[in-house]
Structure formats: C-alpha cells, structure tokens
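Notes from hallway chat w/ T.B., transcribed later so I don't forget. T.B. wanted the structure written out for a chain they're using in a teaching module, and asked if we could keep both sequence and structure tokens in one place. Agreed to drop them here.
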Amino acid sequence: MTDPNASPPADPGPRRWPVLRTALWVVGKQLHAALFGVLILAAILLTRAIWQPDWALARYDALVLIAVSLQALMLALKLETWDEARVIVLFHLTGTAMEWFKVGAGSWGYPEPGVLKLFDVPLFTGFMYASVGSYIARVIRGFDMVFAPFPSYAACVALAVAIYGNFITHHYLPDIRLVLFAATIFLFWRSRAWLRLGTRWIWVPFPLAVFLASLGLWVAENIGTLTGTWAYPGQSGWEPVRWSLIGSWYLLIFVSFTTVTLVFRDALRRAPFDPSQG
C-alpha cells in the first residue's frame, strides 16, 4: 500500500525542462544566424512552386533580385555590419569564380534560362556562398564565440588557400583532399568552439562544429537539386546528393571561416580559453 505520509516523488521537470529550453534557444539562435541562407532557400522553393515558363522575368533573374534585396535589408536593419558585409562580398566573389570554373568543367550546371547569367552561371549563386559567410559572422556575434586554443592565423590562411586551390587543380593534378582533411585535424584537434549561453559557456571540438555545419549545407544542396535549380551530370530526375559532397562542404567552411574571421580576429585565442576570465 502507498504510505499517505510519504513525500511525493520529485518532479523531473525542473531537471528536464531547462535542458529542453536551452536546446530550443540554441536552435533558435542558430536559425537566426542562418537567416540569410534560410531566406534564400525559401525563395528557391517558393519560386520553383509558382514560377511559370511564360512569365516575362526568368526565375533565375528573380532570384538575383531577391538576393540583392535581402542583402540590402540585412544591412538596413543592422543584422550585418558593414565590416562583415565587405568580407562576405569577398567570399561572394571567390565563390562566383569557383562556380565559373566548376560549371565550365562540367561539375554541375544551371539548366534554366536567365538574362543575369555570366559564363552559364546565374548571378544569384554568389549569394549562396555569401550566405555561408553571413551565417558564420552572425553566429560568432550571436553566441560571443571564442575559438581556442587556435593555431596561427598564417597557418589557417595557408590551409584555406590550399583547399580553394585543390577545388580547381584536382581536375588536372592528383586530388589532395585526404591530405587536407588530415591537415584540418592536425591543426585544429585541440581547438574548441566556445559558445556563451546566458551566463554559462559550452564548447564543442572545432572540427566537429565544422562537420555539423557541413551536414546542414548538404541538406541545403539537396533542396537546390530537388527544385531543379542546379543539377549534377547524369541526374535523371531528382536523386539525393551523394554523401561525399559533405566532405567538400567541410573543407569549404574552413575557407569561409578564415575569410570571415578577418574581422573577428579577437575571437581567435592562441592560449586555452578560461570562461571564468572571459
């Protein structure tokens, strides 16, 4: 029988709900940081659903106008600073240059017509690369992130240059992708990405944080191919983007991170980080 004088069992809620609230808060902040990229993906999905081939404005051209408008709004509403925007523009340009080369080499293509295309690449594609830079900048600011202990910035730049170069040279020379993967672990195996959650700090291994971000980009790439916005050779109807492209995004994030941290150098610490000292 139950003892009527016994104390009621402890409510597990106080232990569980703070964890759930924290998780939801982190996800919300992450989505807020990815706002530009999320809106670009939403525009891709929406235009695919409603666009008609006989409309005066091509879908690709509409996406260019939408992307430019979104970028202007981000600046007008102070969701991005001008310093961040300048660095993101740099990544936009390097991303567009890569698109020109990759499309010319037959790695993928853009099958729809458009006036605002250059070398068979619609000009909105640079904004997709810029959205990666925008996310990195906004997530660093949103979580007061600290990366420590971090290798020398010169080593990071050398790795980023090697990664970017290999995306092009592997069409003519041996692919050194495995060496580059090993280099990311060698350089950053001790590095932690610290995030401030109110008065608390949590951390994740920096390579793991990059890998998780690359998974998100792989999902976004599937949305792009699902809507027919771009296509890989040999595709007959939609099929999932191959898993190996997660590795490509993983490496590309290091290029983007190195570019964006030109204006976030204070977030990089050579020594281990002590949260109690800030």
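Follow-up for T.B.: The first strand starts at residue 117 and ends at 118. Might be a good example for the class.
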